[in-house]
Amino acid sequence: MSSHQQPTSHPFILPQFTSKDYSSFFLAGALCCTISHGAMTPIDVVKTRIQIDPAFKSHSFVSGTRHLIKTEGPRALLTGFGPTAVGYLAQGGAKFAGYEYWKKKFVQVAGSQEAAVEHRTAIYLGAASVAEFFADILLTPLEATRIRLVSQRNYASGLVTGFTRLAREGGLREMYAGFLPILCKQIPYAIGQFTVNEFCHELVLRNMSEETKLSLSSTSKFGISLGSGIIAGFAAAILSHPADTLLSQINKGHGPPSHLSMTTRLITLAREAGFRGLFAGLGPRMIMTAGLVSSQFLMYGAIKDMLGAPPGLEIHKDV
């Protein structure tokens, strides 16, 4: 009598993250995002102008920068710095801590190590999407303020006056007018950022022996993180750029009247823009996003180490 032994599923040994750990994840994510996005403000200003200002439509990134400095002065490159820094402080913390939290939750739902590894793509996609959804609730009003400051020269003098004017004149309706398009932009962005970064790391580490992994120098680890972050940044930019263009148009007040549904407005604007219009300004945004994402992952890891936070949960396929 022969017997067939069924393969057994092994429960995942999950890290037991404490509230202090999640606080560290939040702080590290908040700092890395506000520093990186704040530093990229000049690039984002030029990119936004190319997307929505007719005077900049024919300009490249370099010529657009020169034109902006010539017509409005060097200070124009820092327009919107306040809402950018504050918005991404809140959004970055919620996104990175949320990704760690939801990835662990979805691994628990999978039930075993084998199931988690088999369905790791779905886990990455789900964790990134849910984390980004909640983070965007914090980001949307500040992003609307930033775009108005960039696109309307005399809208307000800064973050506080711009946010106050937006809240007073438009209320919650106008503050969250861009919520749907920002979700359409940020969720694909987060998917590209986290999922592609995970798979880039997996691809590199899968081709190394255990001895090589254990003996990796700091320079090698830095190179892997930098390269993975750059590729993830390119993916994030391409996936999210059409919605980024539509978001700028909505906040500028372009397109159908605001009493129509957001879905109708987005479809109409997309048709008017066409394929080429939806990807206007993609080149500078790819450069910006590659720098953003790679620097964020590098800073996130470094800040977590400084805070004594544990590493995140890994579910990479070894072979």
Characterise this structure:
It is globular and about 60 Å long. The chain has 319 residues and is mostly helical. Helix 2 packs across helix 3 and helix 10 crosses helix 12 (282-307). It has helices spanning 19-39, 41-52, 61-72, 81-110, 113-118, 120-151, 159-175, 179-206, 210-214, 218-252, 262-278, 282-307.
Question: Can you lay out the helices and strands and say which pair or pack?
Answer:
Blueprint: H1 19-39, H2 41-52, H3 61-72, H4 81-110, H5 113-118, H6 120-151, H7 159-175, H8 179-206, H9 210-214, H10 218-252, H11 262-278, H12 282-307
Q: Assign a percent range to the helix content.
A: over 70%
Oligomeric state of this protein: single chain
Number-wise, the strands total 0
- Low-confidence residue ranges: 1-9
**Gyration radius, to the nearest Å?**
21 Å
Could you spell the SSE succession in H and E letters? HHHHHHHHHHHH
Give the biggest sheet. none
Report how far the terminal alpha carbons are from each other. 34 Å
**Strand percent estimate:** under 5%
How would you classify the helix and strand content by structural class? mainly alpha
Shape field: globular
Average of per-residue pLDDT values:
87
Q: What's the tally of helices?
A: 12
